[in-house]
Amino acid sequence: MSYDRAITVFSPDGHLFQVEYAMEAVRRGSTAVGVRGKDCVVLAVERRALAKLQDPRTIRKIVSIDDRSVLAFAGLTADARVLINKTRTEAQSYRLTCEDAPSVEYLARHIAQTQQRYTQRGGVRPFGIATLLAGFSEGGKPVLYQTDPAGTHSEWKAQVIGGRNAKSLREFLEKNWEEGLEEERAVRIGVQALLEVVDSGAKNMEICVVRPGGAKSIMEEKDVDAIVKEIEAEAEEGKTKASPADE
Hints:
247 residues, five-stranded antiparallel sheet
């Protein structure tokens, strides 16, 4: 039927199938996790295995939008590049007009507006990405926003986008997140969530800590690996303790 192909036509039961297909593209993408701490926001993303001769620096799932905001995405990388460039242009335009940096909420709203615009006109298709936008509010509090292909944006304490296991990872975050998380604990929760979907441990993870002022710090692989080994050792110890009880 035409409503299956046309972006501007609703199906009889009220669905826009092209938007839902874009959300499926996000689900087929690599996982990204955002965790808001007391004075930081942690973004943790799954890095898919690279070709042996490929330069890893050319594949980035975490990028700076402005010097106060950092974005992670799941979905089509080419679509992300276009949307990121549009958002960076808007951030610079805002600075030129208002002589101040745009807030994270403003940028999240702009991204969502752009994504929504591409669901309402003929001759275009939706962006096949969802984003997590991290930074600090004007009051100095850490904030985390999510946008999706439908063009909605919302604020979260912790959130997962992309991957087939997003629902179970979200349940994990609901159980483990608490108000006032220290940076170390927030990083650990992010790594622990990714371990559910990543096979090769730290090698296939990218962890970014956004600190006050929007300063972005990408963790070294050896530091992430130390956290991974610590989590795995604790899990192994838990199994060992549980075994005698079962007997």
